[in-house]
Every structure is written in C-alpha cells, then in structure tokens.
Write a structure and sequence with these properties.
Strand order of the largest sheet: 1-4-5-6-7-8-9
CATH class: Alpha Beta
Structural class: alpha/beta
Oligomer: single chain
Bound molecules: coproporphyrinogen III
Number of strands: 9
Largest sheet: 7 strands, parallel
Helix content: 40-55%
C-alpha cells in the first residue's frame, strides 16, 4: 500500500509528529550541481526557464528521481513574481538578481503592482502538473520574505552590507513600510496561488534577515514576513520560515507564525529549539561546505545534526543553506541514505 500524501514523512514532521524516518530535502536541490540540469538549461536564460512549464516540471523532478529526497521544491526564484508584474530585472549568471531601476524613492514604488493569476499562469500550470507527477511526494511552494526581496529592489543587485536598504529603513520609515507592504502583498499572493494550484507546504526565504539586529528585525522586517505567512494561514498547509545567520532572531522568527523554522549551521539544533520554543518543528542544518569533505566526515556530521534534532517537536533534515553549485551530486545521494538509515526518535 502506498502512503497517502498527507502521511508522507515530510508533512508528518512539519506537523510535529515522528515519522518512520527523518525526512530530508535540500535547498537548491534543483540546480547547477546536477549535470542533467546544466544540460537542460544550455542556451536558455534562467528567467526564461522559470516561465516555461515543461522546464519547471522537469528540473523540479530531477533531484527527486536522482536522490530520493522526501520533498520537491518547485524550480523558480524569489524574484520571479517581481518579473511577472513587469519589474525590469534579470538574473545574471554568477551574480544573481540585478534590477534596472532600484527603488529608493516614493515615485519608484509605482513599479510594484499587485500580482494577478494570469501573470504566472505558466508557473501555476507547472505546479499543478507536478503535484500529479509527484504522487505522495510533497511539493514545496516558496516566496522570498519582504526584507530579502527589498534588499535586491533597493540595492539593485546582490549586496554584502545592504547599505542603501538599511539607510532607507532608518531615514524614511514611512516609505520603507509602504515598500514592505507592497512586497508582502505580492509575495503572499504568489504563495497563495501556488498552494491553490496544489503545493502541499510553503517556505518563506528570509535569507538575508541575519544582517539585521533583533530590534531592527522586529520593527522593519518581521511584521511583513508574518503577513506573507498569514496569507496562506487559512489554506491548512505547513509553513516554513528560513533565514541565514539568524541565531539572534530565532525567537522572533518563531513568533512570525510559521510551523517550522529553518536554521543555518552556525547554531546546533538543540540550542535553536531552546530559542524558538517547543511549539515549532525545525529544519536544517548541515553546513553545505561539508559536502566537500570525505563521506565518513559527512556521515559523522549528519549523525550529529540528527541527534541534535531529536530535541525538536519535528525535524526535517536539510542543509543550513543551499547546495553549492560545485557539490558532487553523489555526495547528496549518499547523505539522503545516511538520513534515511538513522533511527528516528
Ligand atoms: O531550491 C531549489 O532547488 C529551487 C529553486 C530556487 C532557486 N532560487 C533557483 C536558482 C530557489 C528556492 C531560489 C531562492 C532564492 N533566489 C533565494 C533564497 C534562497 C537562498 O539561497 O538563500 C535567493 C536569495 C535568490 C536570489 C538568487 N537567484 C541568487 C542569489 C542567485 C545565484 C546567483 C548565482 O549565479 O550564483 C540566483 C540564481 C538562481 N536561482 C539559480 C538557481 C538554480 C542559478 C541560476 C542558473 O542556474 O543559471
């Protein structure tokens, strides 16, 4: 008998239950670490591939077939809904998102209109096709959290220090709050549409939130991450909230409303559980660079993560951030096997 989707190890762990094995998937599991991905993407720009139904379906399936992970994450990018509403942006290879006209004044806010279902029709078609193809393997939908999206929109490109973004939030808080509300509406709608098209969980990528102090996070970022999470609250799917370098923010992230908090590798999961509180499941947190170490080191460190994860109400194994493009895909497959062989408890 096959397991129904709702009883899949991933969804059970999100609900705080203890499935037969600890579920595992990897952020950026679909991507450049896979030769079959690089082949399919040859000559096709990143954003074009994100709007092409067949490519989204095939690229999303590749890591599921190859590694036997417990969840799929649909192939897209956090800037896709911004592109879909007409923001002039590109994802430049080796750089990341680049915005033609960064938003630093009230007049420039006009670039951000609401997202309509028609703007992302080819993407939603992929989500629906995927839920059919995946059967009892859950599909994770996702969106960027407003602070992380704002960091691209305000800086205009990836940044190390977020100087324009932080200057704006402290200099013109009214404009900042209006910008964040606009982004939260777009990201929230993008998530809602994905769930309505069949996604069975969502992750909000608050990736760069760790650049903020706790006080600034609470004032300038958390209410908008909370709004995005709230936009799917009535749909009954588990919600994951993830960021990098968020050790000091974990309690506040837990308060934002997610069921699961994603944790990077800088803090052990048992300590993370102490900071987040007992009501949430956790996701993480093997350092992605450890996949460049020999298999016995990966196995030892994975077991440590699994042991520390026992402190949680539910544990979803993942890396502490995305798969690095140069990672040997066989190392990922071996890691899935190590996690699946571990006694849960
Ligand atoms: O996780 C998955 O497998 C699903 C696909 C996914 C991508 N981006 C594909 C992608 C997801 C979930 C994202 C989210 C994303 N995008 C985040 C949050 C996650 C995180 O890493 O913290 C952020 C910050 C972005 C913005 C972005 N897009 C960056 C920084 C880059 C990398 C730039 C580079 O070339 O190194 C991208 C491009 C991108 N997004 C690629 C992929 C597979 C590489 C583009 C390519 O293959 O040509």
């Amino acid at each position: 008998m096959t397991t129904p989707l709702s009883e899949s190890p991933f969804l059970r762990a999100c609900r705080g239950e203890t499935p037969d094995h600890v579920p595992v998937w990897f952020m950026r599991q679909a991507g450049r670490s896979l030769p079959e991905y690089r082949k399919l993407r040859e000559g096709i720009a990143m954003l074009d591939s994100c709007f092409t139904t067949d490519l989204v379906v095939e690229i999303t399936m590749q890591p599921v077939r190859r590694h036997g992970v417990d969840a799929a994450i649909f192939f897209s990018d956090i800037v896709v809904p911004l592109k879909a509403i007409g923001v002039d942006l590109d994802i430049v290879p080796g750089v990341g998102p680049v915005i033609a006209e960064p938003i630093r004044s009230r007049a420039q806010l006009a670039q951000l209109r609401d997202l309509e279902p028609d703007d992302v029709a080819t993407i939603l078609a992929a989500v629906t096709a995927l839920t059919g193809e995946l059967g009892s393997t859950p599909l994770i939908g996702f969106a960027g959290a407003p602070f992380t999206l704002a960091s691209y929109l305000v800086e205009g490109r990836p940044s190390r220090d977020y100087r324009h973004t932080k200057a704006l939030m402290h200099t013109d808080p009214d404009l900042w709050h209006d910008l964040m509300s606009r982004i939260a509406a777009i990201a929230g709608q993008f998530l809602r549409l994905q769930v309505q098209a069949g996604a069975s969980a969502v992750q909000v990528f608050d990736s760069w939130a760790g650049a903020l102090s706790l006080a600034d996070y609470r004032t300038f970022s958390q209410p908008y991450a909370a709004a995005v999470l709230a936009s799917v609250a009535d749909l009954g799917v588990p919600r994951i909230h993830f960021g990098v370098g968020t050790g000091e923010l974990l309690g506040a992230m837990g308060d934002a409303g997610a069921d699961v908090v994603g944790v990077d590798w800088r803090i052990p999961l048992d300590e993370a559980v102490r900071r987040i509180g007992p009501d949430h499941a956790v996701q993480g947190n093997l350092d992605p660079t450890l996949l460049f170490a020999p298999p016995e080191v990966v196995e030892r460190e994975a077991r440590r993560v699994l042991d520390e994860g026992r402190a949680a109400r539910g544990h979803i194994f993942n890396l502490g951030h995305g798969v690095l493009p140069e990672t040997d895909p066989d190392a990922l497959t071996r890691l899935v096997d190590v996690v699946h062989a571990h006694e849960p408890g």
